[in-house]
Structure formats: structure tokens, C-alpha cells
Amino acid sequence: MMATLLFNPAALADESYGAAINKFKQAPATQKFFDSAYGFAIFPTVGKGGFGIGAAYGKGRVYRGGGHTGDTSLSQLSIGFQVGGQAYSEIIFFKDANAYNEFTSGSFEFGAQASAVAINVGANAQAGTTGNSAGAGQGGANKAASAAYINGMAVFTAAKGGLMFEAALAGQSFTFEEK
């Protein structure tokens, strides 16, 4: 019985979402989005790897008005020059109800032209959704470009570790299940 109390997978999952949200809240580039966004989707860990053909996957949660409204998953398949593996966190802010409804329609996809703003938080490296280069252990202040909503959404990533070089066209697909 004691082991059951100490190991609670749901509590560990909740902690990973809270930690990822707090990490993004620390970045100056995302603070204005937390203050004004209609909602957001958070992916605490997205694993990505490839050698010629690459793939990425992560589980996330969608929030609106401070409440958890459903669960989402991210998948990505890419073909092109790429070698290595990487783990990163991703957050997608929704400017308004239209962007939120589009994302939560059940199946949403970013085209290959979509991009993310890479942010550095602590000892994180740079990462992006459309071609990136990352190295673990890079630190320093946030040096990312200023971001704005594109088609009602703004995407940020923060590398967690790994090393990957990629010059590939790739889109991300998302599923959504209401809570």
C-alpha cells in the first residue's frame, strides 16, 4: 500500500505539465502570450530522431481560461537530411476562440511552412519545428526573435537535450480528445 502512495503516475504527469508551463512562463518571449492568449496546448516532452527519415511524438494537454479542457498528441514525420535525436518542450498559444476551435476540432495539422520560435531557458538549446540545430548545454539569456500570432497561433519550443542536425520539410499533426 505504501508503494501505491509514493508512486502515482497521474501525479507525476501533472507535475511534468506544471513544470513545462512554469519553464515557458520564465521566458520573456512568452510572458505576453500567457497574459493575453485565449488558451494554449503544452507538450512537456517531444521526442524526435532521425537518420534520413525522422519522426517525433509527444503527448500534451490543452488549456482554456486556466482549465484543462482535453488531451492532445503531436506526431511528425519528416524526410530529408537529418541525423540525431532530440527532446524538447513545445507550447502553442491560441489568440482567440477561432484558433482554439480549429486546433481542437479533432485533427489539426501545421503545414511545412509553419515555424516555431526557439527560446533558451536556463541550460536549454535552440529548437524549432521546421529545421533546427540543437546542442545540449547551451545556456544564457533568451536570444530568440520576437514572435507574433500567425493564423491565430504562436508556437514556441525549448530544447531539453540531445543533438540533432536537420534540413527537412516537416509538418506536425495533432489530435484532440475533450476531457
Could you describe the 3D structure shown?
- It is a single chain.
- The two termini are 29 Å apart.
- The protein is globular.
- Strands 1, 2, 3, 4, 5 and 6 form a six-stranded mixed sheet that branches.
- A hairpin with a 2-residue loop joins strand 1 and strand 2.
- The protein is 22% helix and 49% strand.
- The protein has one domain.
- It has helices at 2-6, 9-26, 28-36, 97-103; strands at 39-64, 67-94, 107-109, 117-118, 133-135, 153-178.
- The chain is α+β, with helices and mostly antiparallel strands and 179 residues long.
Q: What is the N-to-C order of secondary-structure elements (H for helix, E for strand)?
A: HHHEEHEEEE
Tell me, what's the shape?
globular
**Helix/strand class:** alpha+beta
Compute the separation of the termini in Å. Answer: 29 Å
Tell me the β content. over 45%
What value does the average pLDDT take? 77
Enumerate how many helices there are, as a single number: 4
Oligomer: single chain
How many β-strand runs?
Answer: 6
Sheet having the most strands: 6 strands, mixed
* Whole-number tally of structural domains: 1
Helix content: 10-25%
Spans of at least 5 consecutive residues with low confidence: 1-5, 123-145
* Rg measurement, Å: 16 Å
